[in-house]
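Bit of a strange request maybe. I'm writing a small parser for structure token strings and I need a real example to test against, not something I typed by hand. Could someone generate the tokens for this chain?
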Amino acid sequence: MSKPKHIRTLADTEAQAITRNIRVSPRKLNLVAAMIRNQPADKAIAALTFSRRRIAQQVKRTLESAVANAENNHQLDVDRLVVKTAEVGKSIVMKRFHARGRGRSARVEKFFSHLKIVVAEAAEVSETNEEQKAA
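Reply from user aminoacidic:
Good idea to test on real output. This should exercise your parser:
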């Protein structure tokens, strides 16, 4: 007996990569994810390469993994890939304490996040169609 085959939830022209338990708050990670949503994959990688935010390098690794999955596992054209979705979710919260005055303590919460990037192959628009519409 084996497990039943996993049903693919994505379309045939899509691939994904997931990174779990990233040590940054979801709010900060979502700012970086918003930079790359609906961008072509090569432009998104360039934007993340030169971003000054610390977490941008991990987001870049996840995006590169999604592009590699599209190329190797699903035989998609890398030049036509677009970042379809970049979802950010909550993960665990580490709870620590910080000593305060008069014997009290304050709670320090350290947030973790999940990141899911889906890339899709964009339909190529032919130049002849654009010329016909202009005429």
